[in-house]
Amino acid sequence: MTFAQVQGNTEVKRALAGMVDAARVPHALLFHEDDGGGAFPLTLAFLQYLFCRERSGGDSCGRCPSCGKISKLIHPDVHFVFPTAANALSEQYMEPLRRLVAANPSFREAELADALGIEGKNSLIAVAESRRLLEKLSLSALEGGYRAVVIYLPERLNAEAANRLLKMIEEPPPQTQFVLITHQPDKVLPTISSRCQRIRIRPAGAAAEAEFADSGLLDDLMSALLDKDLLRALEVSEQIAALPSRENAKAFCIFAADRFRQMFLCQQGIEGAGQISPQARRWAAGCRKTFPRQALGVLDRTQTLIGRNVNLKILFADMADRLFLLI
Q: Is the separation of the CB atoms in 182 and 75 below 8 Å?
């Protein structure tokens, strides 16, 4: 998987390549994606670029043995960790993962569970996984270069497993790269997420187009809220409700949630935790410090109700009213 084969996120791909070229790659990256949003293929493209000895023009060659092994998930120095049933180890499920990635590298959580045969069961990353990973990392790289660990859904690490990995993520051995892929960054153990460089991965395709197209609506909504103009906020809510489909409405909520997370980071002075837009900086300066976190709860509720076929006009009017009271 080369960067050229990954759709969207042009700026992120350029930034990742630049980190490698400048030999300034953070030892731990936290990719925040929506479920099935493309962070996994981007991770493979990044690792190919990092490991490739013939990279040029901002991309891996895609032909050398290292690129081939990473693209097929068979490189001996790249370790994958993901939620499994009971105390099973991820390495026991690598074959179904390889088949799933070959068919659809931007898979969803449910598709992974189905591929592993654990659909409907409670899945987690248990402490046995951490022990096994630490054993692997105590050994030298088999091919004498970088080693990498990809943790899919670190929010599913149980407390003991997370604490065992904490020191390794904070101070990994030389040439050891961690990449974490999360759908719920707020549920990742704070002591782990704070040690990672967080990067937002935006969905490619129609969802991304809707996301960017609707960003002006969020500007209008926040302007009305900060001006304490409820009537204008309700007028904007009607425009949001009039979006072409429920998928567009969900995309708006996803986009707004990302901006509210950026506002929180800005207010907390956590500049290195992710890319913060100029709008988020401006809004953060004008609202209560409690607003971003509470607003995320409102958006989560709104997005859930969109999927339950609640009338969108009523739903977004209620959302605007709740946000007005919080700001």
A: no
SS3 state of residue 106: coil
**Is the model's pLDDT at 309 over the cut of 90?**
no
Q: Helix crossing, 246-268 with 230-241: angle to 10°?
A: 130
Sheet hosting strand 147-152, strand order edge to edge: 78-81, 147-152, 176-182, 28-32, 197-200
Pairing of strands 84-85, 123-124: antiparallel
Residues near 315 by Cβ (< 8 Å), separated by ≥ 6?
241, 302, 305, 306
Supply the pLDDT for residue 271: 57
Least confident segment among 112-116, 176-180, 227-231:
112-116
Kind plus residue range of the DSSP H or E element containing 177: strand 176-182
The answer to whether the predicted template modeling score (pTM) of the entire model surpasses 0.70 is no
d(CA 112, CA 84): 10
Which residue ranges form the domains of the chain, and what is each CATH number?
A: 3-200 (3.40.50.300), 206-326 (1.20.272.10)
125-153: pLDDT as tens digits: 999 999 999 999 998 889 988 999 999 99
Instruction: Report the pLDDT value the prediction gives residue 215, as an integer from 0 to 100.
Output: 63
The answer to whether residue 28 scores a pLDDT higher than 60 is: yes
Q: What is the distance between the alpha carbons of residues 53 and 151, in angstroms, rounded to a whole number?
A: 24
**6-19 burial by CB neighbour count: b if 16+ within 10 A, else e?**
bebbeebbeebbeb
**109 phi, psi to nearest 5 deg:** -55, -45
**Which amino acid would we find at residue 221?**
L
Token readout for 51 is 């490991």
Rounded to whole angstroms, the Cα distance separating 168 from 155 reads 17
Q: Rounded to whole angstroms, how far apart are CA atoms 68 and 42?
A: 15
DSSP 65-98: HHHHHHHTT--TTEEEE--EETT--GGGGHHHHH
Percent residues over pLDDT 70 in the chain? 94
